[in-house]
Amino acid sequence: PSARPSFARRQPPTMAAVAENAFTAEKEQVAALMTKFGTVTDSAGADAVATELVDLVKSVGIAALTVGGGSEALCALLNDRKSPGPCEAALKGITALCKSEPALSEAVAIATLPAQLPCLADRADSVKEATLALCKIEMKMCSPTAVKAILPALFDGLLDSNWQVKEGTCKCLGWLADTQQGSVGACLVDIIPKVSECLGDTKKQVASAARKACGKACLVIDNPDILPIVPDVIKTIGDVGKTEATMDKLLATTFVTQIDQPTLAIMVPILSRSLADRRALMKRKGALVIDNMCKLVAEPMDMAPFAPVLEPKLTRNADEIASEEIREFTAKALATLRLAMGDAADTFIPEPAMTVQGMVDVMTEVVGDKAATAAPLILHSATMVHFKLASDKRIEDGVCDMAVKPYLEALMGAEEGAAASVSFNEKCDEIISAAAKEQGYVMQDDDLCHIDFSLAYGGKVLLQNTRMHLKKGRRYGLIGGNGVGKTTLMRAIDNNQLEEFPNDLLRTIFVESHSSQEEDEEEMTVMDFILKNDIIREEKTVEQIKEALFRMGFTEDRINQTVVSLSGGWLMKLALSRAMLYEPQIMMLDEPTNHMDVMNVKWVKDWIIAQENVTSIMVSHDSGFLDDCCTHILQIANLKLHTYKGNLSQFVEKVPEARSYFELGESKLKFTFPQPGPLEGVKSKGKALMKMEGVNYRYPINDHFTIIGCTVQVSLSSRVGCVGPNGAGKSTMIKCLTGEVEPTTGTRWAHPNLRMAYVAQHAFHHIEAHLDKTPNEYIRWRYASGDDKEAMNKVTMTVSDEEQAAMDAPYVLQWKDDNDKIQTAKRFIEKLTGIRRQTKGGGKEYEYETKWKGIEVSGATFLTATKLIKAGWEKHVRAVDQKIAMMAGMYIRPLTTGNVEKHLEDVGLGREFGTHYRMGALSGGQKVKVVMGSAMWNCPHLLVLDEPTNYLDRESLGALANAIIEYEGGVVIITHNDEFCRKICPERWVLQKMGDGIGRLDCQGDPEWMKHALEQKVEFKAAEEMVDASGNVTEVVQKKEMSKKEKKAKIKTLKAKIKGGDPLDTDEEAFAIENSLM
Length: 1078
Fold this sequence. Notes:
Layout: H1 24-38, H2 43-60, H3 70-79, H4 84-100, H5 102-111, H6 113-116, H7 125-141, H8 147-158, H9 163-179, H10 181-186, H11 188-199, H12 204-217, H13 230-238, H14 243-251, H15 261-276, H16 280-295, H17 300-303, H18 307-320, H19 324-341, H20 356-367, H21 375-392, H22 399-403, H23 405-412, H24 414-431, E1 447-457, E2 460-471, E3 475-479, H25 486-494, E4 508-512, H26 519-522, H27 526-531, H28 534-539, H29 542-551, H30 556-559, H31 568-582, E5 586-590, H32 598-610, E6 615-619, H33 623-629, E7 632-637, E8 640-645, H34 648-654, E9 688-697, E10 707-715, E11 719-723, H35 730-738, E12 745-750, E13 756-759, H36 775-782, H37 789-792, H38 801-808, E14 811-816, E15 822-827, E16 829-838, E17 846-852, E18 861-864, H39 865-870, H40 874-892, H41 897-906, H42 911-916, H43 924-935, E19 942-946, H44 954-966, E20 970-974, H45 978-984, E21 987-993, E22 999-1005, H46 1007-1015, E23 1025-1027, E24 1033-1035, H47 1044-1060, H48 1066-1074
Parallel strand pairs: 3-6, 3-7, 4-5, 5-6, 11-20, 11-21, 13-19, 19-20
Antiparallel strand pairs: 1-2, 7-8, 9-10, 9-12, 14-15, 16-17, 17-18, 21-22, 23-24
Helix pairs in contact: 1-2, 1-3, 2-4, 3-4, 4-5, 4-7, 5-21, 7-9, 8-9, 9-12, 11-12, 11-13, 11-15, 12-13, 13-15, 14-16, 15-16, 15-18, 16-19, 18-19, 20-21, 20-24, 23-24, 36-41
């Protein structure tokens, strides 16, 4: 049984209690007037008789419309539309009554609505216009409690065969929603299925009116997560082609509010369609959204009306879909749906304590003698009260003021009607048992919040019907694995998105690690950034702000710096400074020690502990920080928020399986990095693959150098930890080494065939322009053309004006003609074709095929790298080298969805998040895994990580450390995590600022380990097989190394073939090019 009251149409009231010969005068007057109505031929006549009808009702009262037969006569005129005059007169008569006597005539107007709507399709324009005008007045004048009484007639109108009736009825719904938004919204579960058929109507007028009506009706939806996409959902209900795009938006939506019945009403049509889609992926998306939304449904009865729509389709899909993974998702969604519905479908809903007839009897009693002529009005009023009783289980305060008082005042007079309304309410209250109020939690003086809530993000439920209880002055460590919702929870509190959280009473601030700056922040100074906060600007003076910044270690010069010029550590200090000045009651800190050196971490600890009146919620993967600072631990596990008293050590005693938060070696998670392939000319792991000598660097906006005199090299054996205080220049040096920026002075070199994975300090900048892609899509986009699009976007790969000028200059080409004479010509280089070979005689330098402007590619010439670099083409030479190196990596593993999915799983990102979630919906830790996985797709020889431990939980840190230990390539890491660094890095580059403020490098390490590493031989095996997109395994034929004698003989044979003009096969042609024979 449904929990909602029935919309069955009320039967016309009988007048059995009225004697047949009673009210004869009224009947005669009405009959005479209706005769005039029947003779109307134009609009003027219709207006005249309408005025007479109003005068009659004012004279004899409602009896003219009830016992006098006025209502039945008007309906007869509306149904008999042979002549437009009488019909128009009836419409204008009801319109005049609604304007003059709205309370008296409302019941009659609603009763005649089924006869009014067909008039919208009348051939006479005057009738159609009069009908629309009347309907608009009726929709605008009705009370909130009358909405449910009107809807049955409107639902019939939506099913009418005439499109004009459908269009007009949709307009009626829109007008009704304009006036009574809340009441219409409460009926959304009934309205949406009826209107949905019109949304896809072939008549544009109907579809347009339906969209507008649906949009107005859906304004009642107060779920802030759904509101932005409601217009898309409405369009999708009427347009099947938009379903997939809207489902993707749903999956990427942050849900933090419980799902109620109006929200479900608008969502179920497209969810049902998704489940019925022939594509398995769409069925999967539908199941995933249903699973997540059902977890947020607090009231089983909210879900009950939709179960018959969704449950059969989920059941069928769980049994029939071929994909095991999708069947599992569907079965899970089905179980969640049934759990959300509970026993609602089988729950017996008792009838309300009073029936409609019982309320009619009570109202008849309090009205007295006048009830004999007001049966329709009394029935209408009693029905509205009964609707509220059925939904609310009681007559709430104010119901009678809306549903009884205005009508009885119109019938009996103001004073008498008001008294009768109060009497009716009191008598009904004596019959109805008031619902007992629930005894809630009694707030204590030191309580800040005590709430029950649910939270979801990006289509995934994170917390379900759990409790948060925060007290003043406590320091809470918020822990849990990557992706469980730690940052999302704090951000939801800060954005006032967490249901029931008292944001209006508490001052909260969210401090997160700066991964990037907004455009308007990039030109701001530190002081401007602080003053951007309105409250700080109003409450603090510039002197107070400076004093706070000085305490954090800022100097006068640094205060005047731009925000964008600050290092990661200083950005976090800036964010903490602003939090200090904001003076919050609740301060939420997301990785506050990220990018910070040991001294600054200690300062942050001391400062947080000193804030005795501030409640702190901290997310950190620094176990020492949590151990020193926390008074309580909040753990997110199994969709619940658990509170434990004590610090992290005490928490681990109670929950031993959480030991991975302390010890890297306790991690059960495993990362597997792809092993690098062979590198031409590299036989020893100690041979330098990348180096720089005497490098100095100065940022264009600075007057002084950031680093000077840096000389380092990296090999396959390298395990380097780059350490130093904030602002010493660690990231700057690494950028110079990797080619992200060009040194101001000094040299940088990398092996031509080197493949390198670089994850920057602010790792998210790699993916910020692609947040609408899934990680799988991003990697396939990034490497689709055979090279790394991110690597090609480096500053060092962008041609400067000076280089362009050199490239545009003529090149002096010299060659020997057939007579062995040297010829010279000036030519212009058009491009490098991408073909490369070693110089003659097996030299170590490469030659690059160069196409000349105005000459066909067959006339291309091979030029050495030295000559091309001198001509300004160095960056193009690097691009060719890089593309060839990348192609070698691609050959190891084809770029297929399955291969990328497996690769992401190897770096800790499950296929659910790697293949099906948009990156914008991922947590910080998951995004770091995406960046790391995408950088390592091409099986790099070197891995360079700038602050990789930020955002990763302890378990992921342990997995990362173990993967690096097993990795056969070289590794360079910048980190402030001393435990992590010492576990994997026997070699250290220590950068420190001297008295002049310039960073200088000191290389340290274990000499025995380094000596042993340099002596190790490279034992990489070339790829022996390749797997294509269909899973087919192809054996790779390895090239056999030729002896000098064999090579000499083959060269002689090919020279003879070339001289004789004989054709060469593919392998012979490649050999000839490689050995400069052609």
